[in-house]
């Protein structure tokens, strides 16, 4: 297995981090922790003279969809930014739409030889900072949380959630799914201690998962042999429509935490923001990952030291893969802008063939 950029944590071979690096409007810190036998998260930060791009892709069913997003989402964003002459909410939507369509084309070409592709998907969280504007797009339950001064000029820092989770553990999302499928009394099933759409999946919006979106795949004899317990669908039961928005950044906005749900399952928004506020910048993403792992270990009545001894795959019973990117906002938006052009920083693992 090889890892791109940064370095392993010396005391845990399933952790990786980049302590601190510059982006166009400040610094960022990056860290991951693997739990699955194959690391299913992907993440990237890319800084150009005009923007900083952040992506967190939390895969499920395998790493294929998240790896695809890691290779194509920024390229699609760049294409539409160039065509439209700048970043906008519509550009973000176009990039999500194009990435979904491209992955569907790949699955359509490959699924007869690689049938598991129809059940592979990914959450997708994207942020783009252009001067004093933050654009956000989200599918699934990765999350962006802002740390800001409660009152400008004072030191108290509060958490502000910038994205909505598309997960049926939330009542609002359950109601949304029920309203979209009024003729299906079994659209939500409570199984293994949680609500799932058709008893299968918790997230209601994703890239991929075409067996839940395209009846062609769910009715195929090949698919029925591979997934005998799955019920064919007549219409999509999940969507790929992102939540997209923008927020003007102000001087009292200090940082944004972009993270997969592996972090948020263990730490509240407030706890994560407090930790970033009270600690040095360098290595802060690793510190958040460690805090999440400590919480996961406590829930199983074990120490962090014992957790580190559990191999990948088995560790998934205790916590999920975790990706954390902390973007500091130093508000270099006007005048002599600080232009930091660097190669993309990608966090991912690649299993050798």
UniProtKB/TrEMBL annotation:
Domain of life: Eukaryota
Entry keyword set: Hydrolase, Magnesium, Manganese, Metal-binding, Protein phosphatase
Record Gene3D superfamilies: PPM-type phosphatase domain (3.60.40.10)
Domain annotation PPM-type phosphatase: ranges: 27-329
InterPro entries recorded: PP2C, PP2C_BS, PPM-type-like_dom_sf, PPM-type_phosphatase-like_dom
Enzyme Commission designation: 3.1.3.16
SMART domains per UniProt: PP2Cc
Known catalytic reactions: O-phospho-L-threonyl-[protein] + H2O = L-threonyl-[protein] + phosphate; O-phospho-L-seryl-[protein] + H2O = L-seryl-[protein] + phosphate
One Pfam family of this chain: PP2C
GO terms of molecular function: metal ion binding; protein serine/threonine phosphatase activity
Cofactor(s) needed: Mn(2+); Mg(2+)
Stated family: Belongs to the PP2C family.
Protein name: protein-serine/threonine phosphatase
Taxonomic source organism: Dendrobium thyrsiflorum
Lineage of origin: Eukaryota, Viridiplantae, Streptophyta, Embryophyta, Tracheophyta
